[in-house]
């Protein structure tokens, strides 16, 4: 699968935009992860830049290419799950691994919240949506990840709770990557 192949693909779920709401869509598993990554305007700006240039994904071990940087609604992205999630500092783009095609469904650009959400496309092992936000308040700067997902393939259905643990692990990697890139 190549990035240019994604244009004609459909979402694998009907609840597009669901990560902006607190209610969990029926049949989906919900992930909420929020981690403090630092303090101050500079940390907020550096974290936002890392997120909006896809560096957070790469630093977390997920090689990703996208049709736009920064992401806009409609931007397609193609990540790869595999060696990058196991090797902490994978710095090369690789064609190895399981393709994870997504499309950006929402962009947030507010004074104290910056980020985006993307939804899964045909060929992704899960069905659902994930949002990535950098937020700041009086207590500091935070990475906030929210996801709603369910298995989309026989092997993710068979893996059951293992896929949820892997998703939580990925969220911790994203937050750690933002912390490293912002401080």
What would you note in describing this structure?
The protein is α+β, with helices and mostly antiparallel strands and 183 residues long. It has helices at residues 40-52, 55-59, 83-86, 154-159, 161-182, and strands spanning 29-38, 64-66, 76-81, 98-110, 113-120, 126-137, 140-151. It has a seven-stranded antiparallel sheet with strand order 1-7-6-5-4-3-2. Strand 6 and strand 7 form a beta hairpin. It starts with 28 loop residues before the first strand and ends with a helix. Mean pLDDT is 90; it is low at 84-94.
- Order of strands across the main sheet: 1-7-6-5-4-3-2
The termini sit apart by 35 Å
Number of strands: 7
Instruction: Look at the helices and sheets and give the structural class.
Output: alpha+beta
**Largest sheet: number of strands, sense, barrel closure:** 7 strands, antiparallel
What attributes characterize this protein structure?
single chain, 183 residues, alpha+beta, 7-stranded antiparallel sheet, 5 helices, 7 strands
Which helices and strands occur, and which strands form pairs?
Elements: E1 29-38, H1 40-52, H2 55-59, E2 64-66, E3 76-81, H3 83-86, E4 98-110, E5 113-120, E6 126-137, E7 140-151, H4 154-159, H5 161-182
Antiparallel strand pairs: 1-7, 2-3, 3-4, 4-5, 5-6, 6-7
Helix pairs in contact: 1-5
């Amino acid at each position: 699968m190549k990035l240019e192949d994604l244009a004609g693909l459909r979402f694998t779920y009907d609840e597009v935009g669901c990560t902006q709401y607190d209610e969990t869509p029926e049949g989906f598993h919900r992930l909420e992860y929020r981690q403090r990554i630092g303090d101050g305007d500079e940390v907020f700006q550096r974290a936002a830049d890392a997120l909006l240039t896809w560096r957070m994904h790469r630093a977390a071990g997920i090689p990703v290419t996208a049709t736009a940087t920064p992401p806009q609604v409609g931007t397609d992205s193609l990540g790869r799950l595999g060696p990058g999630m196991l090797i902490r500092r994978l710095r090369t783009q690789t064609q190895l691994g399981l393709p994870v095609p997504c499309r950006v469904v929402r962009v947030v650009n507010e004074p104290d919240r910056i980020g985006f959400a993307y939804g899964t496309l045909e060929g992704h092992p899960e069905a659902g949506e994930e949002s990535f936000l950098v937020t700041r308040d009086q207590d500091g700067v935070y990475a906030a990840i929210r996801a709603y997902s369910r298995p989309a393939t026989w092997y993710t259905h068979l893996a059951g709770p293992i896929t949820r643990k892997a998703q939580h692990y990925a969220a911790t990697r994203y937050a750690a990557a933002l912390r490293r890139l912002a401080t």
